[in-house]
Amino acid sequence: MAISPSSEPDIVRLGLLGFGNVGAAFVQLVVQQADTIESRTGIRLEVARVGVRNLSDSRQKQLVQGVMSTDVQALVADPDVDLIVEVMGGIDPARDLITYALKNGKPVVTANKTLLSQFGAELFAVSDSCGVDLLFEAAVAGGIPFVRALRESLRGEPIRRVMGIVNGTTNYILTKMTEDGAQYADALAEAQQLGFAETDPTADVEGHDAAAKAAIIASIAFGAHVVAADVYCEGISSITAADISIAHRLGYVVKLLAIAEQAAGSQDVAVRVHPAMVPITHPLASVRDSYNAVFIEGDAVGSLMFYGRGAGGMPTASAVLGDVIDAAVNLRKGTHADIGTFTQVSIKAIADISSQYLLGFDVADKPGVLHAITGVFARHGVSIRQAEQEGIGEDARLVFITHAARESDVQNCLREFGELDAVKKSLGFIRVIGE
Ligand code: HSE
Q1: Which of 85, 264, 53, 280 is nearest to 178 (CA)?
Q2: pTM above the 0.90 mark?
């Protein structure tokens, strides 16, 4: 509904919930871009009210002098607020506030991955029944605009797999381990010093942050009801410098991937987060430092990759503002985006997925050992694609990469390898992106 430049601007008043890094960056960006947005849409955005949990914590308060309060319920109910922007995070009170706003006809833009990965289906149903927008581009991979691409441009695409590097902290740590030969603990300490990693880094390094994002990705890629608890999750804290160096020697880099898959004709969805060996020729291998990327594979479109900043105030605010403009235009047109329905699906157990695997062992270097090991693989129907042996004194280090195999078969092999006298130490396994 663009109006001519001579018309009076149509003001849409925003109620901002949360004023941390993203909230403050959002206010700056709205002020900076207001004229451009008005000239392109006829709508002038104004931050009318800002709600925070605690007034004394707020940085850059001068930006929102006079409009800040801790009464977040009053903010959402205020008739002078047309549209809610939620960047406070967490479940409570965000869930209730968003529900209240939608039920009262106010569109909501949220960056809240924790909330959507647990209560997304409930909130989207409220948004749909009320005919009001609930947009969430910034909830996954911050400034990278791939949610809208999945929801709109790729809506007719038979998507088979989405693989994302969606956690900047772990990508930074793995990059330091790969490029500088750093040990995990040293790379983590450096990430903490630089402010990428939290003092308690558990949510990032154990993959929980990526798992919440994986649930949202799987939901929108496959129109499926997937929550964070459905996501199989392994982090990077047990990745060693030796793993990285074996991967490197064989032409791979180790990345923490969020993977969502659905085979052609199947209703089952596989969704997981774990470290994986990515061939150095794969576009995801070039995603370094704290950058994020999302790689989408579809039957019709082929491969697509979206790359950029997955966190940080301004990149995330950019994604939030894009949604706010859409929601404001829709509000004035009396329409809303159609998010579609999320059907109940079966979530594939990790034991049932198919992947290639790298397995390594230190073994006694004597006749018959290789035969015993390959016999175990053969008995469980696991086919070897690549093998190498390196002498270490009287022992040898064996490294195998399998063809695609069922994970339960590989786990059974590992159990049997543990029972062989010749196997002195198992180096475990890493899943490999390949066939
Ligand atoms: N802690 C996340 C990261 C950003 O390191 O990418 C917020 O999801």
Answers
A1: 280
A2: yes
Domain 10-143+314-333 and domain 156-308, same fold? Reply is no
Atom of ligand 1 nearest to the CA of 168: 6
Cβ(355)–Cβ(431) below 8 Å? yes
Distance 344 CA to ligand 1 centre (A): 28
176 catalytic per annotation: no
Q: Which CATH superfamily is domain 156-308 in?
A: Dihydrodipicolinate Reductase; domain 2 (3.30.360.10)
What average pLDDT does range 335-362 have in this prediction? 95
Q: Check if 313 has its Cβ closer than 6 Å to any atom of ligand 1.
A: no
Angle at 55 between CA 54 and CA 58, to 5 degrees: 95
What are the Cα distances from residue 362, in Å, to 392, 422, 435? Answer: 9, 9, 27
Angle formed by the axes of helices 313-333 and 21-41, nearest 10°: 40
Q: For the chain, give every domain's residue range.
A: 10-143+314-333, 156-308, 350-432
Please identify, by atom number, the ligand 1 atom nearest to the C-alpha of residue 204: 1
Interatomic CA distance for residues 299 and 278, integer angstroms: 21
Which of 204, 206, 316 gets mutated to test ligand 1 (max ligand atoms within 8 A of its CB)? 204
Is the distance from the beta carbon of residue 204 to the nearest atom of ligand 1 less than 6 Å?
A: yes
Q: Is 311 in the pocket of ligand 1 (CB under 6 A)?
A: yes
Q: What is the pLDDT of residue 1?
A: 45
Does the domain at 10-143+314-333 match CATH 3.40.50.720? Answer given as yes
- Ligand 1 atom, smallest distance to 213 CA: 8
| pLDDT for res 339 | 87
Alpha-carbon distance of 91 to 103, in angstroms, equals 18
Q: Give the CA distances from residue 387 to residues 97, 297, 398, in Å, rounded to whole numbers and listed in that order.
A: 57, 29, 7
Give CATH superfamily name and number for 350-432. ACT domain (3.30.70.260)
> What angle do the packed helices 168-180 and 241-249 form, to 10 degrees?
70
Q: How far is the CA of 255 from the centre of ligand 1 (A)?
A: 15
With bands split at pLDDT 50, 70 and 90, how would you rate the model's confidence at 3? very low
